[in-house]
Structure formats: structure tokens, C-alpha cells
TrEMBL record:
Source organism, top-level taxon: Bacteria
Species, as recorded: Promicromonospora alba
Protein name as annotated: DUF1579 domain-containing protein
Keywords for this protein: Signal
UniProt signal peptide: 1-27
Length: 193
């Protein structure tokens, strides 16, 4: 019985790697441990183009009756910096106008968290970032902002409903996070290529 040369070479190199690893005092990475577990690839599933429907509360954190404005269009997510960052380009319109916006998402490896910064292209201003990450398939991001000159808390949730569907919700709190009022709901469905 003959053993092919490649099998001998592969077995020999594997044994040499194990011996070198044992001598250095570190374990060889297993397939499970070599995957990135710190969250920097959390948004990989979202890269691509999506059909988007958006509902926006016209006057959040007010005493006026709730009036929801509706928009529809596309959301395109592009990877940046080896997928450790991405940008969302939103273009939706409806009876009340058009929203053109960007959302820049950056991974902070030292803090093992994401920052999400929104910019409305109409005024070109960046909102303060919200920070967080994913746990059990749900992204939770929190930050501070202002609404009509008063300080508020902001919560942004991302729920991956299925492989081809996601839900995004933004809520504001005027009482330091005790109660939340949802003011933005977006449902995205992947555009098949």
C-alpha cells in the first residue's frame, strides 16, 4: 500500500505546527475560535440593496396626536474597510416629501462596539452617534441628542427578521430612558439580484 506524497507532507506539517504551538505555550486556533467573535462583522448580512418602507412620527415627544408620515424607496448598504465599517444610503419618498440620508457605521475594536452616525443630506448635519452592538440577533444602540433644545436619549434597534428582511426602530426618551416613544420604523426587504 502506498501513501500519496501530499498526505505525508500535510500530516508532517500538521504535526510540526502542533509541536511548535505546544513549545510556545499557545494553543492552535480551532475552526470555531478562529472566527471573529468580537462583533466587527455584525453587519455582513446587510450588505446589498433593500426595498424600504419607512414610517416617521411627525412630531415626536409632543402632546399633539400621533401623525405618521410614510415613505418608500431603497436602502443600499456598502462595506468599507474590510467590512469593519459600512455606509447605508437611504433614498425614500412619499406624499410628504423625500428623505435622502446616510448612516455611517464604524466598529471600535478597543471598545468592541459599533457607532452609528446619521446624516440627512438635506441639511448635511451629522447627528450625535449611538453606540452598541448585537446580542441574540438584536442590535441595540444608545446615545444622547437634543430635540428642540432639550436633552433626550436615543435608542436604535435592529432586528433581523429573516435572511431577507430586517426591521429598524428609533425611539426617543425625555425622561432619561424610563419611557421611550418610537418615532421611526423601517422595514427592509432584500432586492434579489
Amino acid at each position: 500500500m502506498t501513501i500519496p506524497y501530499r498526505r505525508i507532507l500535510t500530516a508532517g506539517l500538521s504535526a510540526l505546527l502542533l509541536l511548535a504551538t505546544a513549545a510556545s505555550g499557545t494553543a492552535a486556533p480551532s475552526p470555531a475560535s478562529s472566527t471573529i467573535a468580537d462583533g466587527q462583522r455584525d453587519f455582513n448580512w446587510e450588505i446589498g440593496t433593500w426595498r424600504t418602507t419607512v414610517k416617521v412620527l411627525a412630531d415626536p415627544l409632543s402632546e399633539s396626536p400621533d401623525q405618521w408620515l410614510e415613505f418608500a424607496g431603497t436602502s443600499t448598504v456598502r462595506a468599507l474597510a474590510g467590512r469593519r465599517a459600512n455606509v447605508v444610503e437611504l433614498d425614500v419618498s412619499g406624499p410628504n416629501g423625500r428623505i435622502e440620508a446616510l448612516n455611517l457605521r464604524l466598529y471600535e475594536p478597543q471598545a468592541q462596539r459599533w457607532s452609528l452616525t446619521f446624516v440627512n443630506l438635506r441639511d448635511g448635519l451629522l447627528t450625535p452617534a449611538v453606540y452598541g452592538g448585537f446580542r441574540d440577533g438584536v442590535g441595540e444602540f444608545y446615545g444622547d441628542d437634543q430635540l428642540d433644545g432639550r436633552p433626550i436619549k436615543v435608542r436604535f434597534l435592529i432586528v433581523r427578521v429573516s435572511k431577507d428582511e430586517a426591521r429598524f426602530e428609533q425611539a426617543f426618551s425625555a425622561d432619561d430612558g424610563t419611557t421611550w416613544e418610537t418615532n421611526w420604523i423601517a422595514l427592509d426587504r432584500r432586492v434579489k439580484s
